[in-house]
UniProtKB/TrEMBL annotation:
Residues 131-196 form a coiled coil. One of its GO terms (molecular function) is efflux transmembrane transporter activity. One of its GO terms (cellular component) is efflux pump complex. Belongs to the membrane fusion protein (MFP) (TC 8.A.1) family. Pfam families: Beta-barrel_RND_2 (PF25954), BSH_RND (PF25917), RND-MFP_C (PF25967). It comes from Pseudoxanthomonas composti. InterPro entries: Beta-barrel_RND_2, MdtA-like_BSH, MdtA-like_C, RND_pump_MFP. Residues 341-393 form the Multidrug resistance protein MdtA-like C-terminal permuted SH3 domain. The keyword Transmembrane applies. Residues 83-229 form the Multidrug resistance protein MdtA-like barrel-sandwich hybrid domain. Keywords: Coiled coil, Membrane, Transmembrane, Transmembrane helix, Transport. This is Efflux RND transporter periplasmic adaptor subunit. It is found in: Cell envelope.
């Protein structure tokens, strides 16, 4: 009985004893699982999300009424002046005064500069003195001729009365005729002296440099005190001109067109010109003439183009791009269809023309489009795009539907 009681006491649970400590192995396993899940989430955020591509964009613009003319040929050239001159004196001399500055507008005949007139003044004074001397000689011979005529008249009466010999009368007549010849020579000397004075006056006028036509001074080449010569005979320190004047009303465009494409250009053909300095300014122009001569080295033909819209921003030697236009049909010109986008926005995917449109969330949508005519650096799109949308320029090959993009600000 006692043995059974002892066994029952051993089986009784002691409620006051502390619980056994938890296992640390399970805790480390739980922490490891949490850490692996955090690393997986970070890896998905970094590697799983696609980085946006940097692209250039452009807006889609509705077709304007005057944009229905197709460009049949593009070329580059320069603005040139058909009427330009480097103004110089007609004689060699020292500059005394210069009355022009760059950018100044002058009228035809306006005085631009003056040379030192000391030599011209001396020559004019000499010619004036020679004229006075010749005139005095005429007066002297004329007085002598009057006396000789009177003498010959008296002797003629005496010889008829046989009061003097015939020889004396003949001598008087010879003296009279000799004075007549001397008077004629003296009169001719007066004319020569007068002409010499006129020439010296012209030489005096040569010291004044005037504008040959109205225009704008583009270069001032001489200063007071310098020597100028039209022949540049004075060496490297001698100027050949006073300045350069350009008639801005004579500005036009010259371009070189390849021989292979010159057949597309016709006189009176409409042209759209764009200056390199003002790329957003479209200048209306027109073909003047095709120069009937080719450049053998460059295989090009020069074409002259008239600028129909004059502006002070257009100056000589500016670079310009031109598009030779072909007038569209009247019904197309009245109702232009579609929109226009830069040519670089149109690419081919699976053999079909497409464009990538950027949405509000910076994701792109691939659109199938129907291209139309070429408009200089742009292209008409008849369907697939709407005005106001934004398209990607030069889409990279990796760009696909739904990709995220960011605009390249550079």
């Amino acid at each position: 009985m006692n043995a059974s009681a002892e066994l029952l006491k051993e089986l009784r649970i002691d409620r006051k004893a502390p619980p056994p400590p938890p296992s640390r192995k399970g805790l480390w396993i739980a922490l490891g699982i949490v850490l692996l899940l955090a690393l997986a989430a970070a890896a998905w955020l970094v590697l799983g999300r696609e980085r946006p591509l940097q692209v250039r964009t452009a807006p889609v613009v509705a077709m304007a009424g005057n944009s229905a003319s197709a460009s049949v040929l593009d070329a580059t050239g320069y603005v040139v002046a058909r009427r330009t001159a480097t103004v110089s004196a007609q004689i060699t001399g020292r500059v005394e005064e210069v009355m022009i500055e760059e950018g100044q507008r002058v009228e035809a005949g306006q005085v631009l500069a003056r040379l030192d007139p000391i030599n011209a003044d001396a020559e004019r004074n000499l010619a004036q003195s020679q004229l006075s001397s010749a005139q005095s000689q005429v007066d002297t011979v004329a007085a002598q001729l009057v006396q000789a005529r009177n003498e010959a008249g008296r002797l003629e009466d005496l010889v008829q009365q046989r009061l003097i010999s015939r020889t004396q009368y003949d001598q008087a007549v010879a003296a009279r005729d000799s004075l007549k010849a001397q008077l004629l020579t003296a009169q001719r000397n007066v004319k020569v002296a007068r002409d010499q004075l006129a020439i010296s006056n012209i030489g005096k006028d040569f010291t004044v440099v005037r504008a040959p036509f109205a225009g704008v001074i583009t270069a001032k080449a001489a200063q007071p005190g310098e020597i100028v010569s039209p022949l540049s005979a004075g060496g490297g320190f001698t100027r050949t001109g006073i300045g350069t004047i350009v008639d801005m009303d004579s500005l036009e465009i010259e371009v070189d067109v390849g021989e292979s494409y010159i057949g597309r250009v016709q006189p009176k053909m409409p042209v759209e010109a764009t200056l390199n300095a003002y790329p957003d300014w479209k200048i209306p122009a027109e073909v003047i003439a095709i120069i009937p001569a080719a450049d053998r080295g460059k295989a090009t033909v020069k074409v002259r183009i008239a600028i129909l819209q004059k502006d002070v921003r257009i100056v000589p030697d500016m670079g310009v791009r031109v598009s030779f236009l072909e007038k569209a049909a009247p019904e197309q010109a009245e109702k232009p269809k579609g929109v226009r986008v830069p040519t670089a926005a149109i690419v081919e995917r699976d053999g079909k023309p497409v464009a990538f449109v950027v949405g509000d969330d910076n994701t792109v949508q691939q659109r199938a489009i129907q291209p139309g005519i070429t408009l200089s650096q742009e292209r008409q799109v008849l369907s697939g795009l709407q005005p106001g949308e934004t398209v990607v320029l030069e889409p990279p090959a990796a760009l696909r539907e739904g990709a995220r993009v960011v605009e390249d600000k550079e």
